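Sync notes, pocket subgroup
Present: LS, DG
LS reminded everyone that the earlier model was apo-only. Rerun requested with heme C included. Inputs:
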Amino acid sequence: MELLYKLVIPQSETNLLLLNLLQMISLSALMIYSGILLGSISLSIWFYRKSIKENSLRYAELAKALADLIASGKMFAFGLGVVPFLAIIMVYIQLLNLTGSYVPKFLILSFVLWLIAIALIFIYHHSTELNYYLEFFKTKMSSERGDDDFLMFQEKAERYRTRTGFWGIVLLAVSLYIFIAALNLAVENWRWGAVHNTFELILSFSAFFKYMSFITSAFAITGIAFLYKKYKWMEEPPFADAELNDYAKRFNLSVALIAGMCMPLFYVLNLLITPKTAINDFLFGFALLGLVLLFVLLHFLYEMVRKSKFMYISATFYLLIAVIGISQVKEQLVFKYANAEQTERLAKNYEVFYQDLLAKAGRGEAEINGEEIYKGKCVACHDFERKVVGPPHKLVLPKYIDNPDALAKFILNPVKVDPAYPPMPSQGLRPKEAEAVAKYMIEHYGPKIK
Ligand code: HEC
């Protein structure tokens, strides 16, 4: 843990705000990507089982199309998965510096598990292709010599695929649970001292609700993304068989509708368990906006199911992305509000760090020179002996000789003193500079007065 926090570079308040923003974007990308992956691969595995049980090549085709949905693009995994994930970890290390919280440790654990899961899922995706063609060849083959070898090979490939798919999905689900629980812990700062291991981490109702919220949105977006990608984006329908296309459409729409109908429940539950320290009007309004969009989305979905027409696919796809984005932004706002004190502490820390840096560079506080400031700003109106615009020092300095603080205070904030003079304009000095000038004046003119 100590080692992790050593990576921290103190950040100014604006930078901390930027980090929060980066967090919101990264989280939305990661959650949408991981959600589609989780949904599409588990449905794909389910259809493979069905295809074997019912010995139907059709379900295998659907299973393959589902596996293709997002696992076919390695760039997606990198841009929407690995990069945001690493950014999120780095930012949390920054934002939770000096708290001693174990959140970054859990995030790294979830990242390692997530990476293994992704690797397994990619292998699964490749073997769905392999198995699909093996099955295809089998139907074309006549029962000649070599059949047995072929069947054995096919069986082996089958086992291989089932196992990688199964373990990939289990690991993905586990890693995302740890991830979400860690994000939840980052908000619940009163638990930081009490949570040291993964077991203590995952035992939390609020983490469970947030996970369920993720799972429901994962299946909703999977169903809609399938329809969007395969029937709106691509020019040709994914299957040659019209009946299968019809089935795939209806199936994905129902998945989206059922999962979508569970979403408001968890959305509201999550809002109810938000720590009181983080609730304010803005957050509430923002969360409400998400809920309204969610209901609009459900209305579109329901209309499509009712009419068996797919006219709102693009609208629902973008709406759902917006809803998921809003709920991630909301989570980050909650984090920001709940940890406002921590942010303040980090910003103060940055001030100290910055002054140190200036001093090291030979500038900053060390360089404040009372004499220079005096000669630059004060001589225009002041002299020791004579009256210029302001009174001569020999008349006004005596009362300050033993009280440099009072002098510094006057220089910093001049007040009206002598009716014979106009008021002295403020010289716009910083406190440290006023002190230095006061010190210089007393040291320089003090001896002349006595
Ligand atoms: C634009 C002209 C002007 C400049 C520049 C100026 N002063 Fe003055 N200063 C005045 C005037 C006018 C007064 C008389 C104010 C009064 O009595 O209300 C005064 C009063 C003072 C007094 C007497 C306060 C007292 O309690 O009677 C001190 C000390 C002083 N100035 C210090 C400074 C120092 C140090 C600077 C430079 C950082 C400075 N002044 C720059 C015009 C100026």
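DG: The pocket of heme C is lined by residues 377-378, 380-382, 389-391, 396, 410-411, 416-418, 421-425, 427, 437 (CB under 6 Å).
LS: The chain has a mean pLDDT of 87.
Action: DG to write up.
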